[in-house]
C-alpha cells in the first residue's frame, strides 16, 4: 500500500512577517515528517506545477485573481488584505503553488486511491473575492471543482481544522453536488459555522466548545459524516486536514491526539470503500504537533 504526496518547494516562500503563526517552518516540518524513513518507504512524491488560471477561475472571479496578481507584481512591501492575512513579495508564487499541489493531489488520488496535498498557505477561509484567515485561494474547493471536471460528480469535503471553513462553506453552500462537513471550535474564529447553517441541505456543521473529552470530538464528527452520507454517495472525499485541532495547538482548544487523526482517516476511508480519499493541508501552528498529525494522517492514507 502507498500514497502520493503532492508538494511544491515554492510553498515555503510566502512570508507574513515576524511572529506570524502561519510561517514557512510549517511546511518544512510537514515535509521533514513525511521524509522519515519508516514512512518514506510507503510514499511516492509528485512535484506539482503551479495552478493555471482556468482551474482557479472555477472558484475565484478573474478580477480578484487580477487584484492579487497586481499586488504581487508591484513586488515590494507587505499588503494587509485582512488584519491577519498579509501578502508579501513571494506570496502569490506560494498561493499558486499550493493550489497546484491540491490539483495534483486530486489527479493522483483519483488514479491511485489516496493522496495528500502538502499545501501552504492554507485555503479554507478564503472566500470567492476575499482573502482572510491566512488564506488567499481556497485550495480544497479548487480541488473539488477539479475533481468534478475530471468526472467525479459528487464531492464530500470533511474539514477537521479547529476553525470553521467559512470560505469553503460560502463557496459550496448553494451547490448540492458538494456536501461539506465541518467540526470546529465555537465560539471561535471566524465566528461562522452554526449547526443551523445548512446551505441547500448540503452543509453539516458541528460546532463544539474547546476542552471536551477527545472521544466526543472523534464521535461527533463521524456522526455528522454519516448524516451527510445518508442516501448520498460521493465519488471522492477531500479532507480539509487542519492539525490545529490537536491538544496543545496555540490557536485552538480541542483535545485531539494524533491517534484520533489516524482513526478518523481510517474511518473515512472505510466509508468511502475504495473511492478516492485526498487530504489537503489546512492549519496547525505548533510544529511538533503538525508533524505528528500529518504523519498519522498520511500513514493512515498509505
Ligand atoms: Zn485553523
Largest sheet: 8 strands, parallel
| Strand count | 10
Mean pLDDT figure: 97
> What is the helix/strand order?
EHHEHHEEHEHEHEEHEHEH
Q: How many DSSP helices? A: 10
Shape: globular
Give the end-to-end Cα distance, rounded to a whole number of Å.
6 Å
Could you list the spans in which at least 5 consecutive residues all have pLDDT below 50?
Answer: none
Global Rg:
17 Å
Reading side by side through the largest sheet, how are the strands ordered? 2-1-5-10-9-6-7-8
Which kinds of small molecule does this entry bind, naming each only once? Answer: zinc ion
Helix vs. strand class: alpha/beta
Estimated share of beta-strand residues: 15-25%
The percent of residues in helical segments reads 25-40%
Key traits:
302 residues, alpha/beta, 8-stranded parallel sheet, 10 strands, globular, binds zinc ion
Topology (SSEs and partners):
Blueprint: E1 3-7, H1 25-34, H2 37-40, E2 43-47, H3 53-57, H4 62-74, E3 79-82, E4 85-87, H5 91-112, E5 114-117, H6 139-149, E6 155-159, H7 166-172, E7 178-185, E8 203-208, H8 214-228, E9 236-241, H9 258-272, E10 277-281, H10 287-301
Parallel strand pairs: 1-2, 1-5, 5-10, 6-7, 6-9, 7-8, 9-10
Antiparallel strand pairs: 3-4
Helix pairs in contact: 1-10, 5-6, 8-9, 9-10
The chain binds zinc ion (ZN).
Amino acid at each position: 500500500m502507498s500514497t502520493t504526496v503532492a508538494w511544491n518547494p515554492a510553498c515555503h516562500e510566502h512570508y507574513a512577517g515576524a511572529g506570524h503563526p502561519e510561517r514557512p517552518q510549517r511546511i518544512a516540518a510537514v515535509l521533514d515528517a513525511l521524509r522519515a524513513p519508516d514512512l518514506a518507504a510507503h510514499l511516492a512524491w509528485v512535484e506539482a506545477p503551479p495552478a493555471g488560471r482556468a482551474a482557479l477561475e472555477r472558484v475565484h472571479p478573474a478580477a480578484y485573481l487580477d487584484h492579487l496578481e497586481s499586488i504581487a507584481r508591484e513586488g515590494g512591501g507587505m499588503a494587509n488584505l485582512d488584519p491577519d492575512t498579509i501578502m508579501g513579495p513571494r506570496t502569490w508564487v506560494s498561493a499558486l503553488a499550493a493550489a497546484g499541489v491540491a490539483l495534483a493531489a486530486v489527479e493522483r488520488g483519483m488514479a491511485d486511491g489516496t493522496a495528500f496535498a502538502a499545501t501552504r498557505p492554507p485555503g479554507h477561509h478564503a472566500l470567492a473575492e476575499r482573502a482572510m484567515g491566512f488564506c488567499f485561494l481556497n485550495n480544497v474547493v479548487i480541488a473539488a471543482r477539479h475533481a468534478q471536471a475530471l468526472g467525479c460528480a459528487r464531492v464530500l469535503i470533511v474539514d477537521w481544522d479547529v476553525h470553521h471553513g467559512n470560505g469553503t462553506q460560502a463557496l459550496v453552500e448553494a451547490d448540492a453536488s458538494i456536501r461539506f462537513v465541518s467540526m470546529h471550535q465555537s465560539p471561535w474564529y471566524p465566528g461562522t459555522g452554526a449547526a443551523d447553517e445548512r446551505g441547500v441541505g448540503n452543509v453539516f456543521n458541528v460546532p463544539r466548545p474547546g476542552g471536551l473529552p477527545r472521544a466526543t470530538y472523534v464521535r461527533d464528527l463521524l456522526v455528522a459524516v454519516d448524516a451527510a452520507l445518508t442516501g448520498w454517495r460521493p465519488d471522492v472525499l477531500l479532507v480539509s486536514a487542519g492539525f490545529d485541532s490537536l491538544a496543545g495547538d496555540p490557536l485552538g482548544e480541542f483535545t485531539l491526539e494524533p491517534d484520533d487523526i489516524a482513526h478518523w482517516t481510517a474511518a473515512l476511508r472505510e466509508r468511502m470503500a475504495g473511492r478516492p480519499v485526498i487530504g489537503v493541508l489546512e492549519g496547525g501552528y505548533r510544529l511538533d504537533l503538525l508533524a505528528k498529525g500529518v504523519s498519522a494522517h498520511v500513514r493512515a492514507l498509505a
